[in-house]
Amino acid sequence: MLASGCEQVRRACVRVFRLFDEKITLMIVPHEKGRVFTIQTNIFAMLMGFIIFAGITCSFIYFNKRTAGSSLEISRLRAENKETLASLDELRDENNNLLQTAKRFQSSLSQSLSLLGINQSGTVQKGTGGNGDLSSLFDSNDITSGSLRETSDVRQLTAYLESAVQPVEQIGRMLETQGTLFTDIPNIWPIKNGIGHISMGFGQNIHPITQQWYIHKGIDFSTWRSGDPVIATANGQVMTVGFSKDFGNYIIIKHKHGIYTRYAHLATTRVHKGDSVTQRQIIGTIGSTGVSTGPHLHYEVHIGSDVVDPAKYINIK
Q1: Angle formed by the axes of helices 148-184 and 43-116, to 10°?
Q2: Rounded to whole angstroms, how far apart are CA atoms 63 and 69?
Q3: CA 114 vs CA 108, 126, 132: distances in Å
Q4: Pairing relation of β-strands 282-286 and 248-254?
Q5: Which of 62, 65, 167, 308 keeps 20 to 30 A from 76, CA to CA?
Q6: How many CB atoms lie within 10 A of CB 157?
Q7: Rounded-to-integer distance, Cα 250 and Cα 265, Å
Q8: How far is CA 182 from CA 148, 179, 256, 291, in A?
Q9: 186 with 259: CB under 8 angstroms?
Q10: What is Dmax (Cα atoms) for the chain?
């Protein structure tokens, strides 16, 4: 049976071989009179030629599509390149504006440091190569050229700003110290929200009741009504909350640096002896107690045993 099967396979192969080996004659006859071309071949060669032709045609179509796709990609990349160049030009303009702003900042910072007496030798100059300014930063001819010039400028600007951090922090600490000092010195209007007006100044005045000349040891503030809140003009500690024939209800607050303030003719008081108060804290309300012709606040500032004009300290900020 095995021999019979092999024989069948052999016969099938022979038939296939004979089929592919069958001769075919192709004749090419011109329309005009001329020579007739005759081509003799077999089915196998003709089939292989068709396969090769089909392969060449498919390859041509494939690579043609690839070429068209590549052309589109190149066009897209060119458009993106134009946008990138436009963005780069814009970046260069912004970088130039940044450098000009840095120049102005450097000038202002140097002036501020000089006014505040801060030594710049170990701060700003450290980040600028010891020149104390941005001359090295803006001398871009010595840095680099082309598209890397902006990168180098930005790096040097960053280094300079980092070196400027220390003096700016020193300024901040100084301002913080001064802010604390301002809250410890009576320097604000003693009526909340700054309302009212000065009805009598410090010094020589005519007494409103006796009509005699006398030395007025404070400033009178009036809002033409009672009940407006009176505030502490600086941080301190309440030393006295009392009543007298002349001042009526009054409060004395002790501040730092040997300074005292008195608030008199109050309608009400809202603090007690020994209380710690902060600047702008409400301590009472305007009234007309004691020797008074109408609602007002009598405000005094004492430094040690001396009475001084409160106007010299109001709004000194």
Answers
A1: 40
A2: 10
A3: 10, 16, 12
A4: unpaired
A5: 62
A6: 20
A7: 6
A8: 50, 5, 11, 33
A9: yes
A10: 155
Extended strands (E) in 12-126:
23-28, 37-42
Q: pLDDT tens digits, residue range 32-62?
A: 666 777 777 777 777 788 888 888 888 888 8
Condensed to tens digits (0 to 9), the pLDDT of residues 179-223 reads: 667 788 899 999 999 999 999 999 999 988 888 999 999 999 999
pLDDT score for 118: 66
Contact 273, 290 (CB under 8 A): no
Q: Find all residues with CB under 8 Å of 123, minimum gap 6, and list them.
A: 113, 163, 164, 166, 167, 170
**What is the identity of the amino acid at 257?**
H
SS3 content of the chain, % helix, strand, coil (to 5): 45, 25, 30
The C-alpha atoms of residue 263 and residue 250 are separated, in whole angstroms, by: 5
* CA pair distance 121, 128, nearest whole angstrom: 11
Count, in order, helices (H) and strands (E) of the chain. Answer: 5, 14
Two structure tokens written together for 8: 């069948």
CA dist list (Å): 229 to 36, 46, 196, 285, 311: 126, 115, 11, 4, 20
Question: What is the rounded distance in angstroms from the CA atom of residue 66 to the CA atom of residue 94?
Answer: 41
* Cα–Cα dist 214/179, whole Å: 37
